[in-house]
Amino acid sequence: MSFRKAVSVIFMALLVSSSIASATDDKQKAAAATDEDGKYFDAEGTPTYKLEADGTVDWYTFSGYRRYHSDCHTCHGPDGMGSTYAPALVDSLKTMDYGTFLSIVAEGRKNVGGGKENVMPAFGENKNVYCYLDDIYVYLRARAVDGIPRGRPPKKADKPQGAKDQEASCMGS
């Protein structure tokens, strides 16, 4: 391989790795910047978590914990840590954007390669998941950036009226 070609390959690898590194979520990027009736958003408008100094989590993070452990943990493991047949979502959400998360959960995904097949079923018609996608995302994001520890959050904020209204509308009650 020529020197010029080797330099080009190294340069491209650095570009790819720097773009991956800049896309990595962290506590600073996930910091709550705004709040709408107890639902928090980062500076870019993406749903995020809020942890108070006394360990109280916002309602949506707590709800996400509950919803994740009722429908997702059987494949993706407790607290998003992964299993032998589904990836650790605490790792995936470090580089996965909000839109991609919503799309994969709603539509499902199939990966085939290396002699193995992974299938994420579509949950777009399962109201117990679909109506709480933001909650699940917020919980997993908090876990991915080490914003909250493993296990059930010890304290939670009260359920805001906006959450009650959205739930009634989505669930059809």
UniProtKB/TrEMBL annotation:
It comes from the Bacteria. Transmembrane segments: none annotated. It holds the Pfam family Cytochrome_CBB3. Gene3D superfamilies: Cytochrome c-like domain. This is Methanol metabolism-related c-type cytochrome. SUPFAM superfamilies: Cytochrome c. Residues 63-127 form the Cytochrome c domain.
